[in-house]
Amino acid sequence: MKNLNKQTVSKDILPITIIQFGEGNFLRAFIDWMVDIMNTENGFDKGIAIVQPIKTGKTDVHNRQNNLYHHISRGIQKGKIQTSVRLIKSIQKSVNPFEDIEAYKELALLEHLEMVVSNTTEAGILFSDNENEMTDLPETFPGKVTKLLWDRYRHFQGDKDKGLKFLPVELIENNGDKLKEAILNYAQLWKLEAEFIDWIEHYNYFANTLVDRIVTGFPADEIDQLQKEVGFKDDMFVASELFHLFIIKAPKEIQSYFPADKLGFNVKYVDDITPYRTQKVRILNGSHTCMVPMGLYKGKHTVGDFINDKELSEYLNQIIFNEIIPTIELPEEELKTFANEVIDRFRNPFIKHQLTAISLNTISKYKVRVLPTIIDYFHKYKALPNGLLKAFSFMINMYMSGDYPLKDEDVVLRYFNDLRKERLTDNEVIRKVLGKTEFWGQDLNAIPGLSDQVLAYYNEITHKNESYNKLK
């Protein structure tokens, strides 16, 4: 078996036009994968330079393989298993600034540099007023970007055409706006000249984004077989699902530079990300949250186990298409397409998503992912979504029974533990839980009929136990 490097694989030299902060699995199976396809099939001709944003990272592995690696995407599309393997060649250079600061500083001065992409985790876009002075390598990611922009601004003497386009994919709302805000805060803190601040404001462009793709990373359990199939030893092999979604709110300067929406990718440039975030949170994440307590009650272990059970699958379809979708302000056909893709993703045999893993912090997840649907449905139809209330009753039973290894905030676990000790009637349990405003932000007993319906389902669960099979 051959080693994977530029001696064993031909690799075109591309101009570095994109800096990427983050060398992790997600970007390699998302942005780098897109750019590689665009380079090969659409003449995009853009190369990527990776920057390791923290001291520990994988740039040594990248460089050992000359930034070559395989990406495998697998899943179900329209009822059929599909697999795609691609050798990715879009990354031209990997830089560890903690070991080679000069190589990092040179990136800011590249003539053809145009874009910065990043995935530095949710905590990465952070401003710290403790960094009182600008150093060669500031501690935070926005601090590093501010220094990079300052070096570029001075080198090109404030050239308006040398500003950069930022495409962050960190999983926080308004990620681009928050990155820009942090950069401007550093420029103010470090007392950089007003002309530089004006250059950031008017000649650098920031997108807000929403991304969706499950990336499982290095396929350790099957790497020997995969390496045999591709014919190379590859320590950077990365696996993901087939599905991908990239929602971008960005100025025209970014849209024209990164036209992935016109090249066959599931990329959308939109004026408002909010409904797409609502779509993802309510359909994908909300379904996950609802299936956990019911699935565990039924003895299921994974999302796949749940969706492959006929009765549970029918229940899931009921809540998605009849209760969740009607509350989202997007075209119905678009929502149904997304929902069917979600169901295919749940059926993906290559992803073993444990229900116990999804159960982490279920109370707070339910508040964000499910409760808004119940409230919107009630306001819209003056009725209650019975399937989602059934999930609510199963969730309360999951916490009250003490039968499951739950992981949640201490205050939540203590609350239900104390409730069990009180030996309350079912009615008292439901009234107390629904009235816990610290959990829900409101007293849910005040919604007409909600507590009575949850109580009815809860009675069936607690009294019938395993004989309770009527889910619809």
Task: Provide a quick synopsis of the model.
By secondary structure, the chain is of the alpha/beta class. It has helices spanning 25-28, 31-42, 59-64, 101-107, 141-155, 175-189, 194-203, 223-230, 252-257, 274-297, 303-307, 310-324, 332-346, 355-358, 362-369, 371-381, 386-401, 410-421, 426-434, 437-440, 450-464, and strands spanning 2-3, 16-21, 47-51, 69-77, 80-88, 91-95, 115-118, 165-168, 205-206, 208-212, 215-217, 232-233, 238-241, 245-249, 267-269.
List the helices and strands and how they pair.
Blueprint: E1 2-3, E2 16-21, H1 25-28, H2 31-42, E3 47-51, H3 59-64, E4 69-77, E5 80-88, E6 91-95, H4 101-107, E7 115-118, H5 141-155, E8 165-168, H6 175-189, H7 194-203, E9 205-206, E10 208-212, E11 215-217, H8 223-230, E12 232-233, E13 238-241, E14 245-249, H9 252-257, E15 267-269, H10 274-297, H11 303-307, H12 310-324, H13 332-346, H14 355-358, H15 362-369, H16 371-381, H17 386-401, H18 410-421, H19 426-434, H20 437-440, H21 450-464
Parallel strand pairs: 1-12, 2-3, 2-7, 3-6, 4-13, 7-8, 8-9, 14-15
Antiparallel strand pairs: 4-5, 10-14, 11-13
Helix pairs in contact: 5-6, 6-7, 10-12, 10-15, 10-17, 17-21, 19-21
Describe the structure in your own words:
The protein has 472 residues and is of the alpha/beta class. The chain has 2 domains: 2-269, 3-Layer(aba) Sandwich (Rossmann fold), CATH 3.40.50.720; 274-467, Orthogonal Bundle (N-(1-d-carboxylethyl)-l-norvaline Dehydrogenase, domain 2). It is built from 21 helices and 15 strands. It has helices spanning 25-28, 31-42, 59-64, 101-107, 141-155, 175-189, 194-203, 223-230, 252-257, 274-297, 303-307, 310-324, 332-346, 355-358, 362-369, 371-381, 386-401, 410-421, 426-434, 437-440, 450-464, and strands spanning 2-3, 16-21, 47-51, 69-77, 80-88, 91-95, 115-118, 165-168, 205-206, 208-212, 215-217, 232-233, 238-241, 245-249, 267-269. The strands form 4 sheets. Strands 6-3-2-7-8-9 form a 6-stranded parallel beta sheet. A 4-stranded mixed beta sheet has the order 5-4-13-11. Strand 4 and strand 5 (80-88) form a beta hairpin. Helix 10 (274-297) packs across helix 15 and helix 17 (386-401) crosses helix 21.
